[in-house]
Amino acid sequence: MVIADHPITAKAHTNIALVKYWGKLNDQLIIPQNDSLSITLDKFYTQTAVQFLPELAADDVIFDGQVLSDDASLRVRTFLNHVRELAGFDYHARVITKNFVPTSAGLASSASGFAALAGAASRAAGLALNQRDLSRLARRGSGSATRSIFGGFVAWQQGHDDATSFAYPIDERPAWDIAVVVLVLTVKQKKVSSRVGMRLAVETSPFYSAWVTASQADFKTVKTAIQNQDFEALGHTSEQNAMRMHALTLSSDPNFTYFNADSIKAMQLVKDLRLQGIVCYFTMDAGPNVKIICQGADAKQIAQHFQAVFGKDQVLITRPGAGISISD
């Protein structure tokens, strides 16, 4: 094992969950309550460079050109401690990250962020991890990051411990023409973090056990739909799964929601388009921004429809993205 004598750079893309992860069995190891399934997106990504340096007295974390305080960089430093433990040394690191996705707005910035950090930090530390082990490592920073190691359609196996909870590819380069129209309705940081929201749902929602059972069934349905290229089954099940997840926020104590007025408006517009014969479905993660799953041939028309309502700059077309890339 040789520590790199220069910065190592990794690039990882965000993903959106078609079958959601919402709640942990083990908070420390980030073991989920159920299997989940996502699609990696080509439009949004994080690029991170890491170098471990013996002369540093502390980790130096620079995010989008700003040096982060100790409080702001706590999750990064905790993750780096795990990498140092695996590598068997105590050097601190300089981390330089550029985010090409709004942070904490429900667009999975932590997924791309910790996937990129896992790739760059592990290689900089001299660890030669295969993709499964890299997925396991990324999970320790953010659960959804475990899926951003791979491209295309990706599953996260729940597992029962650190060794058995990891992501694996279902279809890394989808041959069918799938697109996602992203509505960036706000870039404001959400008031309730995913971690807090999950904990509230697990501990207080009376419907949580039913959610887990339904999600396991949804996982099987969506996985089969991908294998059969059955767009309507994939879209319908993904939309239902998203709404069931958000029902947990409304039934938690205290109750809360990630929706805003534009979220509700956008969801209704998607349903209106379906009535007009344009087959598309919506999904939402922990934030107000809406993602519309559609077939590639319809993406431009759908995007134009929503640009007329929300503005041109708020609507983006994205397609299945690649897995992590690491450059020495």
From TrEMBL:
InterPro entries: GHMP_kinase_C_sf (IPR036554), Mev_decarb (IPR005935), Mev_diP_decarb (IPR029765), MVD-like_N (IPR053859), Mvd1_C (IPR041431), Ribosomal_Su5_D2-typ_SF (IPR020568), Ribsml_uS5_D2-typ_fold_subgr (IPR014721). Its EC number is 4.1.1.33. One of its GO terms (cellular component) is cytosol. It comes from the Bacteria. Residues 180-313 form the Mvd1 C-terminal domain. GO terms for molecular function: ATP binding; diphosphomevalonate decarboxylase activity. Signal peptide: none annotated. Residues 12-167 form the Diphosphomevalonate decarboxylase-like N-terminal domain. One of its GO terms (biological process) is isopentenyl diphosphate biosynthetic process, mevalonate pathway. Keywords: ATP-binding, Lipid biosynthesis, Lipid metabolism, Lyase, Nucleotide-binding. Belongs to the diphosphomevalonate decarboxylase family. PANTHER family: DIPHOSPHOMEVALONATE DECARBOXYLASE. This is diphosphomevalonate decarboxylase. It comes from Secundilactobacillus pentosiphilus.
